């Protein structure tokens, strides 16, 4: 079997509302690039990558001369063809590799008639639990703003009732730490039996990270995620705070994982199928974490249904997955896969059982959201539409004002 074509289509899929984060915002939509790898036997495998727009489409097309005639089963050769570690210093193709790897695994599963998780060792669970993943956000049509503790708790309550979440992750770093601490404590008070996690995306100073970490030590925490930047910063917090620390920012490859094993800075490594260059590297990293008693969770980088499927197959095969996964998925208004968004049941999503990734593209929706992308274009992830001229620093000292209610026009 040989690869004969690679196609890429960038789409913009609407979110319920613009989501605020420490470095800017998601401006009311996710921009994702869908990838189709076609073989000479007629199989079409699916991949997905965040953002990119026209440049991502061109980048994927540019890989065809590298991969035309390549056997999708030859995944290790694929890795070196696309992301040789020395050449990658110049071309940085890790996320491109991930999308192509997804598609090749999809093709292999279809060819053999088995789901991708069976190619990775076989499932140890039939569903993957998820956290609620709460954002501060601007108001949008039919969806109110989230800025105050009461608004946040009300939103979390609604998600809990709708989807069954019993783990709640607050994306922070938007408002001053004292305000976000008040919000976090309000969640703990409202849901005393549920577990919590807080992620300010590494923008707190060491002093603020320590202060926040100490202030939540008595709560039912899963972990404190990236309170400060860098392995050394995390080590400093870990030495002085009695809450497990997690990261998805500074342990995203095996070199960094080795450093964290030798001198532990993070207790939990959040494995992202895109950031690590595919599902298979995440499985390999999870094995290292199991050996050295590091916790793992499945990270979300803003997925549609194709990448969600990769997260589900990853979660299905990891025996040491003891934390709920992250997902932005419930923030979407729609999806591009046949049958619509995959449903939550009891806070979890079932692992697909059909061959390959187990999801197929809805061609009409892909066309609709490709047109929406052409109409709206991309957006600057590292800017906030409600704060013209603002940009984040690390550590950040210029937080949004939690007393001001804002509407934005996008």
TrEMBL record:
Assigned EC number: 4.2.1.40
Gene Ontology terms for molecular function: glucarate dehydratase activity
Gene3D superfamilies linked: Enolase-like C-terminal domain (3.20.20.120), Enolase-like, N-terminal domain (3.30.390.10)
The protein's annotated pathway: Carbohydrate acid metabolism; D-glucarate degradation; 2,5-dioxopentanoate from D-glucarate: step 1/2
Species name: Nonomuraea montanisoli
Domain Mandelate racemase/muconate lactonizing enzyme C-terminal positions: 149-244
Reactions performed catalytically: D-glucarate = 5-dehydro-4-deoxy-D-glucarate + H2O
SMART domains from the UniProt entry: MR_MLE (SM00922)
A Pfam family: MR_MLE_C
Name under which the protein is recorded: glucarate dehydratase
